[in-house]
Amino acid sequence: MWMNRVMPWISRVASRGYYRVTVGGAMPPSVGPALFVANHTNSLLDTAFVVVASQRPVRFMAKAPLFTYPGLGWLVKGVGSVPVYRAQDDPKLVAQNLDVFRAVYAAIAQGDAVGIFPEGISHSASHLQPLKTGAARIALGAAAELGRSFPIIPIGMVFADRRTFRSKAGVVVGESCKWNDLAARGPKDREAVRELTRRIEASMRTVTLNLHTWRDESLVRIAEDVWSAEFGGEGGTKGKMERLEVTTDALSKLRLGEDNGWRALARELRSHDRVLGRIGLTAHALRVQTGAKKAVPWLASQIPWLVMMPIAAVGVVLFWIPREIAGRVGTTASTKEGDDSVPTFRVMYGFVVFGVWFLLLAVATGLAFGWLAGIATFILLPSFAFLAIRVGESQQFVWQAVRRFFILRKYPERIAALRQRQHALAQRMKDLLRDSSA
Questions:
Q1: I need a labelling partner for 152 at 20 to 30 A (CA). Which of 139, 212, 317, 400 fits?
Q2: In whole angstroms, what is the distance from residue 62 CA to residue 84 CA?
Q3: What angle do CA 127, 131, 133 make, to 5 degrees?
Q4: Distance from the first to the final alpha carbon of the chain
């Protein structure tokens, strides 16, 4: 457990270094016993997101083979993970889970936070997989030792493009699962275990995106974009997940032949998205006002990012080699574990490759300008790398915004018609959402 205390820092660097992360939802308990339950679509990197969302050290249940996996075993052990012996790995070791569960009961009873992925596997599916009963048995066993219930917190992770560097990732913290009435029944009560598993799954569905197929993702995305562009994203991240849940539920009903008004709306949303894509706009960009009173101050506010363009250029040149090496080596190393582990291996090898690269640059600087300059270079390079990424992204967004500004100015009549259509679509969606929740 020697790394457990620094795990929050490592998790922030790993998750926010690879993705553009937003965290929202409920406030998790900062102290005391807690069980965090999360969906599992991104291998070991999911643990980093859980730690970032929980804002505290978390001990994780991890499949036993990871403890001896080359290059990963030291990390899994160092953060205080607890091995889980699965029948598909080695049936002879499954009996050891009894001792493992007792250790986890004790850890929670003494006030630790434990994280578990109840699906039991890391996967690339578009929806939650059937939950195993382990999370419920752990909660009931720990409650027996503690003498009461404690928070079971669902955490959902949604990725725009899981494999792509600097793509968007959303983490949502849900409200604690309600299970006071089950806490005294113990882990040997099969009915209590089944009921608590059902409640845990229900709570996880409130913070995850559950699509019938990934082909639905584009429709869900444009529906949310249109809503938030017109109504300002009411309810924050939690409100967004609630709307996504209703939208995906509506899609499921459409497949069952229940045309409740969503079918025509779905077609028109896809058509609206295609039109926006052809002219290079987004639902939010369509709402931008192009008058000089607003455009000039906005352009002036972006000047600092444009002035810092050399930083981004230097960053591209200076860190292109380690980025390519880490990406290629990580992708190759992930072959055995599967597609969902690609970002994990890229991040893991990225720490090593960039660390060596920083050291080489520091040594070169030290030889040229003295050892003090070399030490300063090694200390400052990580911060410079993150700054270069941030400046580069901001400049990209600025140029995109400038391009969209001129498009909005060039086709005023077409843009006005698109704005009216988008507002009408959003209002229809709002009415359907209201009817669905009534």
A1: 212
A2: 6
A3: 170
A4: 49
**Contact assessment for residue 160 and residue 218, using Cβ atoms and an 8 Å cutoff:** no
Query: CATH 3.40.1130.10: does it fit domain 4-205?
Result: yes
Q: What is the pLDDT of residues 257-277, one digit of tens each?
A: 555 567 788 889 889 999 999
119-138 pLDDT tens trace: 988 877 767 889 999 999 99
What is the spatial distance between Cα 42 and Cα 26, in angstroms, rounded to a whole number?
22
Q: Are 84 and 97 in contact (CB under 8 A)?
A: yes
Closest among 370, 396, 326, 421 to 18, alpha carbons compared: 326
Q: What is the pLDDT of residue 351?
A: 92
3-state secondary structure of 34: strand
Integer CA distances (angstroms), 256 to 259, 261, 280, 433, in order = 9, 14, 35, 19
Instruction: Please state the domain extents for the chain.
Output: 4-205, 298-412
pTM of the entire predicted model? 0.81
